[in-house]
Amino acid sequence: MHLKTAKAIAMGLLLTLLGTAAHAEDRLAVVELFTSQGCSSCPPADALLGELARRGDVIALAYHVDYWDNLGWKDPFASHSGTERQRLYARSLGLSGLYTPQMVVDGAVDVVGSDRRSVLAAVGGARQGAGVQLTREEGKLKVAVAAQKGAPEADIVLVAYAEEAETKVQRGENAGRSLKEYSIVRGVYPLGRWKGDPASFTIDLGTVAPDATAVAVLVQASGPGRILGAAKAKIRPE
Question: Of 39, 93, 133, 178, which residue is most buried, by most CB within 10 angstroms?
């Protein structure tokens, strides 16, 4: 084979491989739990989320909603933004209302958070999406999102969370119980819009919620819609 022909074939193969990598990569499943310390049916879902958080192929996030706070116990982790995110999911998924415990898998599947079999079935299987890389360097987090041809326009957000916490509940449906909870969202930080082109961001970790010990970066179709890419990283000791 002529040397120039061999080089041309090799270059063509390399470009094909690079194009494939830019098109899609294996990605983590994203499981979002909507929960509350005031909800007596939520602790089993919290425990299941803790199991998922320990898996290498899952990003687990717990949003504590605030609509239980006037029923006897104010959840210290509750936020109205968590309730609003759940409300947006209810609209995009065509649900009739809000409930706890609810898990949303990959921004596309609604599952009762305590239904172990359904949750594990929703999480199972391989996934592909835009590649996301996180690198810590001198108190900063560098985020790199790879290109993906034909991807829908999306939002890139950083979600800071506390990996584990325990609370002794004094009143409400869980009065007298010590609740252990996992992957508790402590702050959400929009990074920018994504249209399928390579993107990079640098975040000063000093600006992230001080009680957060880890972060996830999500690339999510607007709506909120399906998750297109995701990665997680530890940023502080627990």
Answer: 39
Opening angle at CA 180, ends 157 and 53, nearest 5: 45
Residue type, 138: E
Q: What is the pLDDT of residue 24?
A: 65
Say how far apart CA 59 and CA 215 lie, in whole Å. 10
First vs last C-alpha separation in the chain: 60
Of 192, 184, 140, the residue nearest 160 (C-alpha): 184
Q: Are strands 25-26 and 128-129 parallel, antiparallel or unpaired?
A: antiparallel
Q: Which residues of the chain have pLDDT under 50?
A: 1-22
Place of tokens 């690198």: 135
> Of 75, 22, 36, 17, whose CA–CA distance to 198 is shortest?
22
Which residue do the tokens 């970790």 mark?
205
Question: pTM score, two decimals?
Answer: 0.89
Q: Is residue 214 within 8 Å of residue 235, measured between CB atoms?
A: yes
Give the type of residue at 224: P
Are 130 and 219 in contact by the 8 Å Cβ rule? The answer is: yes
DSSP annotation string for 131-170:
-EEEEEETTEEEEEE---TTPPPEEEEEEEEEEEEEEE--
Give me the pLDDT at residue 19, please: 38
Sequence spans of domains, the chain: 25-234
